[in-house]
Amino acid sequence: MLITNVSQLKTLLEKKNIFLSVEELNEIEEVTKKYPMRMSEYYFSLIKEKNDPIWNQCVPKIEEIEIESGEEDPLHEENQIPFLTHRYPDRCLLLISNTCGMYCRFCTRKRKVGEIKKNPTKKAIEKAIEYIKEHKEIRDVILSGGDPLLLSVETLERILIDLRKIDHIEVIRIGTRAPCTMPERVTDKLCETLKKYNRNPMLYINVHFEHPDEITPKSKAACEKLLDAGIPLGNQSVVLKGVNSNSETFKELNRKLLSIGVKPYYLYQPDLVKGTKHFIGPVKEGIKIIKGLRGHTSGMAVPHFVIDAPGGGGKIPLLPNYAKIQKSGKVKMKNYEGKSFEYSLD
Length: 346
Prior knowledge:
Layout lengths: L1 E2 L2 H10 L6 H11 L6 E2 H5 L7 H6 L4 H4 L17 E5 L2 E5 L26 H13 L5 E5 L8 H12 L6 E5 L2 H4 L6 H9 L5 E6 L9 H12 L4 E6 L8 H13 L2 E7 L14 H11 L10 E6 L4 E4 L5 E3 L4 E5 L5 E5 L2
Parallel strand pairs: 4-5, 5-6, 6-7, 7-8, 8-9, 9-10
Antiparallel strand pairs: 1-2, 3-4, 10-11, 12-13, 13-14
Helix pairs in contact: 11-12
């Protein structure tokens, strides 16, 4: 079952002995008029209490429409080719769905996710694939949305077949939150189809876990099915106030991810999206999280902390200040404990 309206939400919350006032329910309903609500019954089951890290990701808050700062499309993804963004020389982003198992309240594409009229059509996807075919510099295609794994297996298969016909494509990446928010969507049929097309070009999947409570037996099983299909898994997270904005949370999350075969890949500073200001903390929080991970846990558990530059400037990596080149030509360094070292470049 999908929870998409206030009446459903109220009934299910009360079964958890969580009660909202009439004012709170009215506020949620008001938000959903602009930004739809959608969550799977599974993800809802992870809520332990009001305003916990799971709640804050899936239950609308009045701040989404009260705070006017931010832009609808801060990364300037919209361009002349609908649903396709060709920002970097050798790779492009292709949006093939605008539906997800859950509408994350911090979504960078709040402007279009869940809007039926903004769903990519078969004709629009074919036009975007024709663009890719004509641009031989593109070797890496990222399928995103919405969530590509919410498409029918047949539709996803058709897109994979069309992309595989293009000789210069070497890598296809799929961005999905289904293993986290709707693990039942990762079916045997889906995995068999992905396995069938997982060579020449290679398939990679980036999943999206934000908090340790999202690592459950069901999400673990979903990831294991994808791994059994031979598909490497990476994780992308966002630093979110009220969800995960400290190094201890990420240390636990990333260790759990590695234990189920998922490599922490990117940690994002939130995009400056209208309706998400209440999630955004200072950049220094992200740098502090990386400092709290590096040296304190396996290097495999340390993602790249990046900002997607406003206006379509691309990803910019940020690191704590561990090293500085001196006038003498030596590098002055600090380790994770703050101890200083010098290294000669000669």
